[in-house]
Amino acid sequence: MTKADAHSHRPIAILCAGGALPFAVVQAMRAAGRPFIVVAIEGIADPELSRLDATWLALGQLGKLFALLRRESCAGVVLVGAMNRPALGSMRIDAIGWTYLFDFLRNVRLGDDAMLRRMMRWFEIQGFPVLGVADVAPELVAPEGRLGKVTPPAKAVTAAIRGFACLDALSPFDVGQAVVAFGERIVAIEGAEGTDAMLARVAEIRREGRLPRGGQDGVLLKAAKVGQSLRVDMPVIGPLTIERAAGAGLAGVIIEAHRVLLLESASVLTAAEKAGLFLFGLKRGEVR
Amino acid sequence: MTKADAHSHRPIAILCAGGALPFAVVQAMRAAGRPFIVVAIEGIADPELSRLDATWLALGQLGKLFALLRRESCAGVVLVGAMNRPALGSMRIDAIGWTYLFDFLRNVRLGDDAMLRRMMRWFEIQGFPVLGVADVAPELVAPEGRLGKVTPPAKAVTAAIRGFACLDALSPFDVGQAVVAFGERIVAIEGAEGTDAMLARVAEIRREGRLPRGGQDGVLLKAAKVGQSLRVDMPVIGPLTIERAAGAGLAGVIIEAHRVLLLESASVLTAAEKAGLFLFGLKRGEVR
Question: How far is B107 from chain A, CA to nearest CA, in Å?
Answer without folding.
Answer: 11
